[in-house]
Amino acid sequence: MTGTYYWGRRNLCSQQISYHSLRDGQPHPLPQPRDRRYQLKDLTGLANRVMFPRIPDGTNVQFRPIQTFGLEGSWKTSLYRAITKSAIQRYGSSKVNAVVSISMMELARAIDSRPIQLLFLDDSGVNNQSAPEKVITEKVIIRRRLESKRRNGLIILNFAVQDYFLLDKKLRSTLYVEFLKSAPTNLSDLNALTRIIGDDAITHLKTCQREWLIKSNYAALSSPVVRVLDQVGYYQYEYIEAADSQLRQLTTSYNQRSKERERQAKVKKYRKMLESKQFSKSRDLRKKQQIKYAVEGFRLGLSKTQIKGILGIGDEKVNLAWLQYQEESE
User: Cα angle at 275 between 270 and 280, to 5 degrees?
Assistant: First the structure.
């Protein structure tokens, strides 16, 4: 980041936040007359208590769905890192499984035997949910997955959205906590959201949005509006660099395993398809068949190396098949 960099600092005694800019290596105080944060209640502690209750006893698996709304680039992922850090501080790193994915079923496959499952469904994953019934069904699958591994536990599922009303009303009514990091740009959505969270919260979001987009004051993004049950206030957290977060290590290793599973599934499907094929004894006809089946492999998303190894063909035939596949795609 170039230019002036801003950050927020909380005084734990006064519960006030002072902003400073870093110019020429020296901190300088910033004016705060337009800061509407003080008209909202600090609900950071309440939100954490609701999100992170005591681990249930007996044979009880609790589900705590939450939502994070914000435009692209509004630090939704950094908020999730902060939530993950709070969960680790609350329960201990050995009890928390934190996963980010764009697929509900990938999140379900990532469930392990730890009591706290912190799942983050990224923007594109939420957008791909075509019907609320599908999301509800996949939530049940996630819950059953954990119940098959242990008797008790807590699942915190965070829906990240760029459209506040993207989630169906039935799903929004089950949310325990909602984080709002920006105001809707659509006037109809803005008016509807104002009736839900109030004028002060909308003003706070608009102020933070201007600070972020116009003045590059990224510290404003670290105090989103939060709606906990029937209360509306702000949630204060510190920005966490990805390189300093355990979340990055967790998600990187999981994404690698996920890609490997996808690759193995494609190869298995391709091999199964080839089992039903018979190659001609004629050399010319067999070459045409091999090129045809190589094109089928490209359609499945296999690489040239994979196709060469499975079909046992050389570079010439693979390249011809690739050219044919490119022509079809155009």
Answer: 110
Query: What is the pLDDT at residue 11?
Result: 34
Helix residue ranges, H only, the chain: 44-51, 76-91, 104-109, 123-127, 132-147, 169-172, 187-197, 199-213, 246-275, 283-299, 304-311, 315-329
* Integer Cα distance of 179 and 163 in angstroms: 13
Domains of the chain, by residue range, sit at: 34-240, 262-329
Binned at pLDDT 50, 70 and 90, residue 312 comes out as confident
8 Å CB contact between 130 and 150: no
Pick the CATH number of 34-240 from 2.30.30, 1.20.58, 1.20.1440, 3.40.50: 3.40.50
Report whether 102 contacts 128 (CB < 8 A): yes
Percent of the chain having pLDDT more than 70?
78
Query: Model-level pTM?
Result: 0.62
C-alpha 66, offset from chain centre: 12
Q: How far apart are CA 205 and CA 210, in angstroms?
A: 9
Enter the DSSP assignment of 276: T
- For residue range 62-116, list pLDDT tens digits in order: 888 899 998 887 888 888 888 888 888 899 888 988 888 888 888 888 888 889 9
Q: What is the 3-state secondary structure (H, E, C) of 140-152?
A: HHHHHHHHCCCCC
Residue 207, burial from CB neighbour count under 10 angstroms (0-12, 13-18, 19+): middle
Residue (of 308, 297, 305, 304) closest to 274 by Cα position: 297
Q: Which DSSP symbol is given to 38? A: G
The CA distance from 231 to 46, in Å, is 10
